[in-house]
Amino acid sequence: MDLLAKERDRVLQRAARAYGLGFTIASALCFVLPGAVDGSAALGIGITLYLLLAGAQFMLGMSRNPVWVLLTLLAGIGILGVATGWGKRPSASAG
After folding, report:
1. Of residues 26 and 9, more confidently modeled
2. Residues whose CB falls within 8 Å of the CB of residue 71, separated by 6 or more in sequence, listed in order
3. How does pLDDT run across 22-72, given as a tens digit for each residue?
4. How far is CA 60 from CA 21, 22, 56, in A?
5. Cα–Cα distance, 29 to 23 (Å, whole number)
6. Cα distance between residue 10 and residue 18, in whole Å
7. Considering its fold, how many domains does the chain have in total?
8. Residue 12, class by beta-carbon neighbours within 10 Å (0-12 exposed, 13-18 middle, 19+ buried)?
9. In terms of residue numbers, what domain contains 34?
10. Has residue 52 been placed in a domain?
11. Where are the beta strands (DSSP E) in the chain?
């Protein structure tokens, strides 16, 4: 692989990591807004998953190990689950 292609790949990798981490931070700030999630347990789990997501995104930029891809995907799905309340029964007043 020539030098130009390697440099291009490095720049793209850095840009993707910067965008990913930037949007993760923006999403985390929306997540911690009052009323965004129900309960302090959901907030704690969500923040932990956001830290895991950011760490996995950072590591994904350093190594291309598929474990980091899978961990990023699972953390994102977990955050989605916490934010939407997957697994909770609808309240009686909702219907």
Report:
1. 26
2. 52, 56
3. 999 999 999 999 988 888 999 999 999 999 999 999 998 788 799 999 999
4. 11, 15, 6
5. 10
6. 12
7. 1
8. exposed
9. 3-85
10. yes
11. none
